[in-house]
């Protein structure tokens, strides 16, 4: 056997082994990292009873945005309008119209903006009093705000503006820019961009014009604002931004929550004058835990805060204030989305902890020692921020970032999806629904960018997360991204309002009544639905089994593997019918002989010529039910068994595929090895008949050397493995730690004397 043959067979063996390991690794990743789920029910819009639809302008995009809800009506911002809609019927009570001036439109177009962009898109609204609204819009890239008063105090009220002022810093210039605002205690708190180009992001309190530091990447660095909340004496903002503390490891986007004190009046005469003295931010950590956590870093939306629990609980006392949020992976990463829950108490704890900072621009971000933190803790709100000591103000200016990240409740996402076709965009939560199993569940409604609504719960009863996707509903056929969702409940009426840029739709929260059997009702695993009074209804009593999806109380399984519904009333009143035909029914003790005789009645070995009708559910004996190994063949049963399709779970199917690939690879390798042996024998015979030319062999060796793969010299200055290469990104974790959620990535300065310069 020549060296060439050894190289060739060894190379093939190595490639086969590599291919096998790759397949196994891929299958393991699919089964462990990405749990496959499929909804218990899939619906189209045409299948939804009681749906309502509000359509805006047909010739242009309305860019709908939900601004305010109250009682049974809501205010929706749009292009040059605010719609006052009924949440019951989506009927329009009235509208507020505000078009930009012609001169403003012309000026906007002269700045290379389109006709559609140069309109007034209403995106900020606050209710000042019972008869006044504070409204802001883009106004053809020249933001304006107005105060509107209504003339008639009813749902058909008409508004007329009484004053107008600049909207810079309150409303964005660009209608496509992500921004948020909340009106609290008579003041407007906004998070947007304060210039035409969108390069001056800020968080602003409009009455005193208190804002974040301008053009300081430590405070805000290319943010995309998501939502804002008025909680206690603070206002909280959720957003994503380029992480300045991670810049030494490469550009990355992190999700944040920031907070400011509502009574903050800015700093003294020198430091932080007209700037926040209470602005601090912390990272939101939504990731799949492990030795190397997989992060969903880009927050897209949040639910409203509510009293809930990420897992099911038997007591209504086991709930706390929390918020759910949707996260996506970056565009150039694995396409994935996740939903994580965060307790408000965890958010508060992080803001009361240590800060993260740099000693100089040439050093990495590290935890600030407690001894270097001012006393009292800067997180506390003070009555007069202008009297805060200058040393404390200087610390606040340089240390807006908290050290620890806020970990997700349960240390993992509640819902994960990897897909190149769609991603999550919006979420709303129906907190603490009391189910028929006497447990409470948070029901999640998640919108996607292809017009679908996913309904899900966590059925886990402990720390483990067990996701159930109840249903997936396609609400918009043209794949419009969902931009807002709102749950409406009033006087027994329950609806989910779904908003895209061009349509507003209301659908029922549940469709229990559409299930006609107990088995179908229980299989939904829907906390809203249970089998009660011989029907599937929205009730917290009756037959339900959310963990398993089936209940023995519904009835017995037939030999077809389908659930036969038998109510308790039928069990007690239906008499047992004795079978009268001995031709196709065997006594339990004579099964084999009886079945043999039955088969002998037909000389062609087909089914018996005489077929008795199927017995009723009460006739079927337990030992014969669902037993496909039973030798007794009754005509209809045998036929239905041959037509039955076996369904495999995703994991079983994946294992079968992997085993098939492994066997095919081994068989291919053996066949290839045998063929190579035969070819080598022929080659040796041929070579023996020729005169070997050493110069030709030398030439062959030279060509082989030229064709070999080239590897980077580890000593080269361009090599990533160069000895002179400096590594400024070192992840530090406690001993034996697996970086669980809530543990932020900590960077250490390089032991090399060379420092890195930050821009």
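Q: What amino acid sequence fits the structure above?
A:
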């Amino acid at each position: 056997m020549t060296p060439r043959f050894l190289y060739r067979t060894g190379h093939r063996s190595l490639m086969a082994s590599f291919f096998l390991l790759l397949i196994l690794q891929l299958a393991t990743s699919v089964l462990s990292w990405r749990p496959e789920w499929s909804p218990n029910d899939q619906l189209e819009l045409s299948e939804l009873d009681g749906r309502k639809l509000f359509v805006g302008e047909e010739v242009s995009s309305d860019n709908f945005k939900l601004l305010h809800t109250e009682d049974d009506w809501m205010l929706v911002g749009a292009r040059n309008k605010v719609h006052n809609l009924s949440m019951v019927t989506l009927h329009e009570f009235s509208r507020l119209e505000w078009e930009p001036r012609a001169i403003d439109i012309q000026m906007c177009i002269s700045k290379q903006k389109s006709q559609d962009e140069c309109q007034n898109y209403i995106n900020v609204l606050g209710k000042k009093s019972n008869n006044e609204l504070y409204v802001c819009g883009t106004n053809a890239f020249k933001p304006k705000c107005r105060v509107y008063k209504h003339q008639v105090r009813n749902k058909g009220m008409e508004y007329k503006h009484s004053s107008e002022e600049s909207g810079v810093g309150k409303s964005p210039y660009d209608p496509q820019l992500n921004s948020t605002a909340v009106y609290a205690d008579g003041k407007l708190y906004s998070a947007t961009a304060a210039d035409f180009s969108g390069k001056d992001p800020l968080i602003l309190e409009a009455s005193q014009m208190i804002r974040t530091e301008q053009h300081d990447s430590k405070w805000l660095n290319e943010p995309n604002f998501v939502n804002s909340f008025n909680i206690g004496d603070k206002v909280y903002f959720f957003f994503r931004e380029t992480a300045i503390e991670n810049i030494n490891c490469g550009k990355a986007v992190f999700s944040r929550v920031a907070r400011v004190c509502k009574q903050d009046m800015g700093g003294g005469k020198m430091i932080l004058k007209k700037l926040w003295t209470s602005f601090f931010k912390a990272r939101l950590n939504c990731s799949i835990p492990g030795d190397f956590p997989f992060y969903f870093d880009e927050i897209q939306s949040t639910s409203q805060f509510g009293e809930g629990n990420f897992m099911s609980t038997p007591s209504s006392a086991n709930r706390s204030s929390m918020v759910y949020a949707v996260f996506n992976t970056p565009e150039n990463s694995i396409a994935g989305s996740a939903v994580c829950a965060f307790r408000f108490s965890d958010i508060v704890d992080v803001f009361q902890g240590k800060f993260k900072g740099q000693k100089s621009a040439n050093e990495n971000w590290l935890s600030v020692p407690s001894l270097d933190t001012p006393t009292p803790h800067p997180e506390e709100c003070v009555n007069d921020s202008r009297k805060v000591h200058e040393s404390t103000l200087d610390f606040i200016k340089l240390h807006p970032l908290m050290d620890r990240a806020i970990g997700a409740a349960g240390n993992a996402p509640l819902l994960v999806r990897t897909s190149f076709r769609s991603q999550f965009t919006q979420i709303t939560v129906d907190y603490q629904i009391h189910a028929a199993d006497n447990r409470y569940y948070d029901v999640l409604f998640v919108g996607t960018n292809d017009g679908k609504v996913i309904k899900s719960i966590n059925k886990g009863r402990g720390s483990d997360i067990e996701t159930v996707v109840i249903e997936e509903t396609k609400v918009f056929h043209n794949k419009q991204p969902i931009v807002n969702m709102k749950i409406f409940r009033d006087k027994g009426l329950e609806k989910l309002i779904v908003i895209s840029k061009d349509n507003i739709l209301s659908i029922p929260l549940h469709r229990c009544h559409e299930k006609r059997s107990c088995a179908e009702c229980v299989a939904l695993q829907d906390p809203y639905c249970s089998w009660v009074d011989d029907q599937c209804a929205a009730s917290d009593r009756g037959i339900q089994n959310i963990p398993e999806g089936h209940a023995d109380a519904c009835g017995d399984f037939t030999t077809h593997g389908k659930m036969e519904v038998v109510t308790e009333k039928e069990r007690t009143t239906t008499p047992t019918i004795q079978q009268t035909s001995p031709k196709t029914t065997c006594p339990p003790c004579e099964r084999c002989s009886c079945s043999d005789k039955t088969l002998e009645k037909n000389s062609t070995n087909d089914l018996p010529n005489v077929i008795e009708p199927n017995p009723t559910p009460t006739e079927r004996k337990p030992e014969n039910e669902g037993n496909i190994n039973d030798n007794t063949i009754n005509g209809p049963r045998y036929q239905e068994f041959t037509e039955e399709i076996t369904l495999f779970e995703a994991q079983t199917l994946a294992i079968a595929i992997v085993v098939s690939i492994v066997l095919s690879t081994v068989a291919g390798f053996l066949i290839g090895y045998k063929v190579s042996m035969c070819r080598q024998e022929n080659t040796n015979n041929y070579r023996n008949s020729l005169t070997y030319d050493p110069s030709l062999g030398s030439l062959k060796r030279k060509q082989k050397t030229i064709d070999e793969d080239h590897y980077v010299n580890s000593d080269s200055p361009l090599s990533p493995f160069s000895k002179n290469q400096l590594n400024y990104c070192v992840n530090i974790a406690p001993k034996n730690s697996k970086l669980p959620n809530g543990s932020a990535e900590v960077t250490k300065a390089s032991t090399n004397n060379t420092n890195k310069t930050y821009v």
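Q: And what stands out in the fold?
A: Residues 650-688 form the longest helix (39 residues).
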